[in-house]
Amino acid sequence: MSSSRDIQCLLDLMVALRAPLTGCAWDREQSLETIAPYTVEEAYEVVDAIERGDMQDLKEELGDLLLQVVFQARIAEERDLFGFGDIVEAITDKLVRRHPHVFGEARDLAPVEVKALWAEIKKAEKVERARERAGSVGDPPDDGLLSSVPALTRAVKLQEAAASVGFDWPDVRTVLDKVVEEAREVSDAVAAGDRDHIEEEVGDLLFAAVNLARHAGVNPEAALRLACVKFTSRFGHIEHGLARRGRSTTEATLDEMEALWSEAKRAEAAQTSR
């Protein structure tokens, strides 16, 4: 099968990969549940390519993410649940429904008005879904905040939902005070040596830190990813510095590594000031 720009070619390719006798053994044994972690992973790889500004990589990662959608759609179709066309129809309907300022009568809205209208429509949709599912046995409450999303994202959504009804800190300074308070409580828990209590207090500290980021207008996920990039770069400087001396991290002392860490920080500061 040759490469193609036609989405149908990709759909047909997935049918071939899932074919009982002639398909791929690995692809055939996958389910909606086993594929789900790969979908999350591919979404993060898309974000990573964007942050690195690698457009060639982004094209490939978007393709990998699209494959996940096609894969899930094929599995669902085999189970007579829905197909790829149903997914396209659902998102098309949703986009039209949530953009009355483009496709309906609500014209010439400012960005802040568009955001408010979007939230209002989403709220109405949630109420309708709850009404449709009323009485269904085993269905969890639909609060729009899935527990499976990354914890940082869920924390932001929970805080935004609370803030929308007036339950929020008044300003960033009070949130910063709360972070300090939570840090003290972590210290007390560590001193007590109760692992469960430590875990609880660290969770509270992280939740407060997310709140601080939100109030400061910072995306906590992006901030943490940046911190990871910075850490990787500085630790790489330690490894390279030790290698130049014929040593490894397992042989080096903490003082040696901290000196190289400080050297990396000074180099970053010098680069930034140019």
Summed up, the domain count is 4
**What is the level 1 CATH name of the largest domain?**
Mainly Alpha
Strand content: under 5%
* Count of strand segments: 0
**CATH-assigned homologous superfamily of the largest domain:** MazG-like
- Ranges with pLDDT <50 over ≥5 residues? 137-143
Which architecture name of the largest domain does CATH use?
A: Orthogonal Bundle
How many distinct helices?
12
Average pLDDT rating: 90
Walk me through what this model shows:
This protein has 274 residues and is an all-alpha fold. The chain has four domains: 1-92, Orthogonal Bundle (Helix Hairpins), CATH 1.10.287.1080; 98-134, no CATH class; 151-218, MazG-like (Helix Hairpins); 221-273. It contains twelve helices and no strands. Helix 9 runs antiparallel to helix 10. The protein is extended.
Key terms:
Helix Hairpins, mainly alpha, 12 helices, single chain, 0% strand, 274 residues
How would you concisely characterize the structure shown here?
The protein is mostly helical and 274 residues long.
Write the layout of secondary structure elements.
Layout lengths: L6 H11 L7 H4 L3 H21 L2 H24 L5 H14 L2 H4 L7 H23 L17 H14 L7 H21 L2 H21 L4 H25 L9 H20 L1
